[in-house]
Design a protein that fits this description.
The complex is a heterodimer of chains A (110) and B (114). Chain A is mainly β. Chain A has strands spanning 4-7, 10-14, 19-25, 32-37, 43-49, 55-58, 61-65, 71-76, 85-92, 98-100, 104-109. Chain A contains no helices and 11 strands. Chain B is mainly beta. The chains are: A mainly beta (110), B mainly beta (114).
Chain lengths: 110, 114
């Protein structure tokens, strides 16, 4: 099935610092989604990227889809304690299922 | 609240036992996905159903089975349980299960096999 590699696995930042997580695929993706899972919670959809080179912003979050549609990134500017959680990218596999990356667990130190 | 309901929230059982996890999708959603999340692990896709029919299968063990009923709720059956089956099991639903649809997740069932 589809495999998406995500790095880093863990990231600790001081509150106010920036944070970036990267998602890479060996194959071209039709689209990519990002989810956030708060500690003790369930994954919640953040955004979907479809077009080559697409950039979308949600307040302090910036999502990018690579020109070759094989990689994506999520950047958070000036992290806050509310940003704590695990961020997953997810990409369609064959037969309409959705495969998730390994996730990046973000810890924000006040 | 995502609108997806999973029961029970917690389940504690012994090795060799059999359990059933239940999921009710959002109103109007026809497709249900099951995922397994072990400690510090990502989300492993198990199986997908659409309108009662199996649509896609992931890394689901032979000891595990699932079905989707006419009222669209789904059940995941885990048998001959092993310690390694301890995990958080999520159900998610979408309208039609097509590629690119966003998933709405339930709160999960935490399974502990002792």
């Amino acid at each position: 099935g589809q495999q998406v590699m995500q790095i880093p696995q863990y990231q600790h930042v001081q509150e106010g610092e920036d944070f970036t997580t990267y998602c890479n695929s060996s194959t071209t993706l039709s689209n990519i989604q990002w989810y956030k899972q708060r500690p003790g919670g369930h994954p919640v959809f953040l955004i979907q990227l479809v077009k080559s080179g697409e950039v979308k912003k949600q307040k302090r979050l910036t999502f990018q889809f690579g020109e070759a549609k094989k990689n994506s990134s999520l950047h958070i500017t000036a992290t806050q304690t509310t940003d704590v959680g695990t961020y997953f990218c997810a990409a369609p596999g064959g037969a309409n299922n959705l495969f998730f990356g390994t996730g990046t667990r973000l810890t924000v130190i006040p | 609240d995502s609108g997806v309901t999973q029961t029970p929230k917690h389940l504690i059982t012994a090795t060799g036992q059999r359990v059933t996890l239940r999921c009710s999708p959002r109103s109007g959603d026809l497709s249900v996905y099951w995922y397994q999340q072990s400690l510090d692990q990502g989300l492993q896709f198990l199986i997908q159903y659409y309108n009662g029919e199996e649509r896609a299968k992931g890394n689901i063990l032979e000891r595990f089975s699932a079905q989707q009923f006419p009222d669209l709720h789904s059940e995941l059956n885990l048998s001959s349980l092993e310690l390694g089956d301890s995990a958080l099991y999520f159900c998610a639903s979408t309208t039609s299960g097509g590629a690119g649809e966003k998933l709405f997740f339930g709160s999960g069932t935490q399974l502990s096999v002792l």
